[in-house]
Write a structure and sequence with these properties.
2 domains, 473 residues, D-Maltodextrin-Binding Protein, domain 2, 12% strand, alpha/beta, globular, 41% helix
């Protein structure tokens, strides 16, 4: 059975181009029209000549080697897909790739920055499109999508431009995305069945979610698997988001008592309320994230708030050999599902935290090299084609205008459920904690145990984080 991949293709308004007609003076109109026709004809001829020359140059170009750096390495789930795609592109074009890929971590980020500073950057780079790229973007070391389209008009034209992230350095779009991430609520349906609770849906409200948690607790299970003393990140994010909308979630408060600051305080108060009601594990303040995840997969807890990357962890847990996909216990995996985090206030339940945080850059170094320019463009177009994006994204988010059909038999049941969930998403909004990071989060992240137990005033903790943030600006 085939079904469209649940890529992130959010609803966008269709613009209508309205052309107004006004009166013109008769005097000189014929000469003006003739001049305009002549100019238009010349421009058309020039454009056609340029396009033809570009195409001919690409076809006549000798095979070249380009250097490429990505994060598709190590244990990355797409490492093999990347290797296969590179090999196919090399066979198709006759070009070769010198692969410099490495696992995504702080070491890689430092290496990338250093490479640009020393002039040893790759020709093509798959990298973060946020603040991590500011240095080389500001230095003019990469080429914008708009500039590339002046020579290659069809570059990335299979993407919804509204969903391609702009660089925070200059609000210009450089990186063509492949796949992104989402954060949502995983569910152990075996626990729900034992507690007589229905699977939450897009229509489940916050109050209904609280009622479900109480039923699950009364049945002897833990409603929510979370280690508040270790990883409170997801609950911090969504409970604050529940006080807001996608339009204002990425605002940083100026103080704890302004509108945004009050929303943050109210969000943390909801976490405190859940704790006081006993909906988290008894050891939530001392347990590790791994321990609470185990309670979820072992059928002791019902809900787990986490990211799209957790799909792989749940699947591995359902294999007798975590390294061997052929050992998957499909019956066990069928007990897991994923759904939206229950909404509250003006946030729709189907508004998710997520985004397209990485993409392919073409460096100025490659662009200015006549021998490599066409090859670099060809490589990015191949790696961001509908077919390749579908293969890499699977159950995550993309910016494709039209996602190709996929064979569901090639995916496990949890991946298929994730695709189904993503088909109903109304928006993806980035995580505000990524902007409010580092020491700014200590008072509310590390301080979460004191917040939920009432040992620290919520507004004071929020204000402390804001003061730290302002001092760093």
């Amino acid at each position: 059975m085939k079904k469209r991949l649940a890529a992130l293709v959010l609803a966008t308004a269709t613009a209508c181009l309205l052309v107004g007609c006004g009166s013109t003076e008769a005097t000189g109109s014929a000469a003006t029209a003739a001049a305009a026709d002549s100019t238009a004809a010349a421009e058309t001829t020039t454009q056609e000549t340029t396009a033809a020359a570009t195409s001919e140059a690409a076809e006549a170009a000798e095979p070249v080697e380009i250097t490429v750096t990505t994060t598709f390495a190590g244990e990355d789930g797409n490492a093999q897909n990347y290797k296969d795609a590179v090999a196919a592109w090399e066979t198709e074009t006759g070009n070769t790739v010198s692969d410099m890929s490495a696992t995504s971590d702080e070491t890689l980020k430092t290496r990338i920055v250093t490479d640009f500073e020393t002039g040893s950057e790759s020709d093509v780079l798959f990298f973060f499109n946020g603040a991590d790229a500011n240095d080389f973007v500001s230095a003019g070391k990469v080429v914008s999508i708009d500039d590339i389209r002046k020579t290659y008009p069809e570059y990335a034209d299979n993407m919804n431009d509204d969903l391609i992230s702009a660089s925070p350095a200059d609000n210009v779009k450089y990186a063509v995305p492949v796949n992104g991430y989402w954060e949502a609520m995983f569910v152990n349906t075996e626990v729900l069945d034992a507690a007589g609770v229905e699977m939450p849906t897009a229509d489940t409200t916050w109050d209904e979610f609280l009622d479900d948690c109480q039923k699950i607790k009364d049945a002897g299970y833990t409603p929510i698997a979370a280690a508040l003393g270790n990883i409170p990140h997801y609950w911090w994010e969504y409970c604050i988001f529940n006080q807001q909308t996608p339009e204002n979630h990425l605002n940083i408060p100026a103080s704890a008592d302004d509108e945004t600051g009050t929303q943050w305080c109210n969000g943390l108060a909801d976490i405190k309320d859940l704790y006081e009601k006993g909906y988290f594990p008894e050891n939530t303040l001392s347990a590790t994230d791994d321990e609470t995840f185990a309670s979820f997969t072992d059928g002791k807890a019902a809900f787990l708030l986490d990211g799209s990357w957790k799909v792989g962890g749940i699947v591995s847990n359902c294999q007798s050999d975590p390294e061997d996909a052929s050992t998957l216990d499909t019956a066990k995996l069928d007990n897991f599902d994923v759904t939206y985090f229950p909404g509250k206030g003006n946030r729709k339940t189907t508004d998710l935290v997520g985004g397209l945080s990485m993409g392919y850059y073409i460096t100025k170094k490659a662009w200015d090299d006549p021998a490599k320019q066409a090859a670099a463009v060809s490589f990015v177009e191949y790696m961001t084609s509908d077919e390749m994006v579908a293969k890499f994204a699977q159950h995550t988010a993309t910016a494709l205008k039209d996602s190709p059909k996929v064979d569901e038999s090639q995916f496990n049941s949890l991946q298929v459920k994730a695709m189904s969930m993503m088909s109903g998403v109304t928006s993806l909004t980035g995580a505000v904690q990524d902007l409010f990071n580092g020491d700014c989060r200590v008072s509310t992240f590390d301080g979460m145990p004191k917040i939920v137990t009432g040992k620290t005033d919520i507004a004071e903790a929020v204000q402390e984080g804001i003061d730290t943030y302002n001092a760093a600006q």
